[in-house]
Amino acid sequence: MFNLTPQQQITPKMLNYAMTLIDPVSYVLQHHKIKGKPITFDVPNYDQNRAVAHRPWQKKIIRASASEERDVCVIKSRQLGLSEVAVESIIYWLDTHSKYKTKGLYAFPTYR
Ligand SMILES: Nc1ncnc2c1ncn2[C@@H]1O[C@H](COP(=O)(O)OP(=O)(O)OP(=O)(O)O)[C@@H](O)[C@H]1O
Ligand SMILES: [Mg+2]
What we know:
The chain has one domain. Strands 1-2 form a two-stranded antiparallel sheet. It has helices at 12-22, 24-31, 57-65, 82-96; strands at 33-34, 37-38. It is built from four helices and two strands. The radius of gyration is 17 Å and the shape is globular. It is mainly α. Helix 3 (57-65) runs parallel beside helix 4 (82-96). The relative contact order is 0.12. The longest helix is centred in the last third of the chain and has 15 residues, at 82-96. Adenosine-5'-triphosphate (ATP) binds next to helix 4.
């Protein structure tokens, strides 16, 4: 990944970069922001004040979407963050396949 010579040391920054890239959930937690704020998947201890930020189901969908699976089907109610998850997943996929100069197009459904 870093094309190090045998003399060059792996730095903590490099290690963090590589470890984070392995898992799409870690990747989006580190790199993805929504309106400048970090995203959340888990709110611990049943904290009712932050209950709407508790979205643990997104993690499995992100990992499936970023995998080599051809189809990922989700049955959902509205406003569970699936548009956000879809964009995060395609960015992860593009970044992790960038050596192939991969291009992506994400289309949102519209009324028309
Ligand atoms: N993990 C997250 N952390 C912080 N905010 C989030 C997260 N996931 C979603 N949101 C926010 O929650 C709201 C709903 O997300 P989104 O529009 O992606 O949901 P959706 O399931 O696609 O909704 P709809 O059913 O209306 O299409 C948005 O404002 C989005 O930015
Ligand atoms: Mg949506």
